[in-house]
Amino acid sequence: MELFSRAVENTLIISIKGDISALGGLDLDKKVLKEVEVHHPKRLIINLEEVDYLDSQGMGALIIIRQFTIKNKILFSLVGINDRLRGIFEHSEMIDFFNIKDSEENLL
Fold first, then answer.
1. How would residue 108 be classed by pLDDT, with cut points 50, 70 and 90?
2. Residue 60 phi, psi dihedral angles, 5° rounding
3. CA dihedral for 32, 37, 39, 41, sign (positive or negative)
4. What pLDDT, in 10s, does the model give residues 46-93?
5. CB neighbourhood size of 28 (10 A)
6. pLDDT tens-digit profile of 15-36?
7. What is the side-by-side order of every strand in the sheet holding 75-79?
8. E strands present in 18-71
9. Closest Cα partner for 104 from 10, 3, 14?
């Protein structure tokens, strides 16, 4: 798993490439929150266009990030979710917990 971040005005966009799983992406929440601490954004967007797989540990990391953004009043969105990932979010009943949008452009 690789993370690529960029700041656009008061928005931090983090694109993830690879699987978000116990094997492929440990410490996702720590890596993302470290970027948030550096940039102090008002909005955080995580782009999942290049993610094909998400396991329960990866979902747990996204939940930690979501809880952090709620506590710190940071707008948080997930974008670029393919049908497979959408099914995982729906099956785990987390689809409504996250603000899921089609693309970054809709948020900027």
1. low
2. -60, -40
3. positive
4. 999 999 888 888 999 999 999 999 999 999 999 999 999 999 888 888
5. 24
6. 999 888 877 656 889 999 999 9
7. 2-8, 11-17, 43-50, 75-79, 100-101
8. 43-50
9. 14
Q: Domain 2-106: give its CATH superfamily.
A: STAS domain (3.30.750.24)
Q: Which residues of 54-90 are buried (b: 16+ CB within 10 A; e: fewer)?
A: beebbbebbeebbebbeeeebebbbbbbeeebeebbe
Q: Are 57 and 22 in contact (CB under 8 A)?
A: yes
User: In which region does residue 4 sit, left (phi positive, over 0), alpha (psi from -120 to 50) or beta (all else)?
Assistant: beta
> Which helix or strand (DSSP H or E) is residue 34 part of?
helix 28-39
Backbone angles phi, psi at 75, to 5 degrees: -65, 135
Predicted local distance difference test score (pLDDT) of residue 101: 87
Q: Name the DSSP class of 75.
A: E
